[in-house]
Amino acid sequence: MEYIPSALIPLAAYLQQGCFGPCTGISFLDSTPLAVCHNARISQHKVFAGLAKRGKTSTGWFLGFKLHLVFNDRGELLNVFFTPGNVDDRKPVPKLVKKLFGKIFADKGYLSQPLFEHLLQTFNLRLITKLRSNTVCRSVPA
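Now predict its structure.
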């Protein structure tokens, strides 16, 4: 059990040392669940006890982690971040986009006026998502 967390630091260092592509001004952001066991076995699961958390996606509940990815328009990885499964997709965004510029496209899970404004003011980065049907559109100057 202890070898898994200790492997994350070398993995992160490896990724930072040259596996990332350059930002082109057009980036894409998404997350995917990393389930550590089947839902029927959650109560017996012990390997990631204390680390893995229950989360919900559009397809249902899971126990595990979320892998957050940012990549450019060429399909090259720009940044990666792991969180427990119960973390909101919007929470790690400021850490993921620190070195980016231009526009970043994401799904409805990232829709948030405060996040949009924070990214625009702090990083001069435009977050573009599809609107939910119950969302009121506020225009922002170009």
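Residues 123 and 137 are 22 Å apart (CA to CA).
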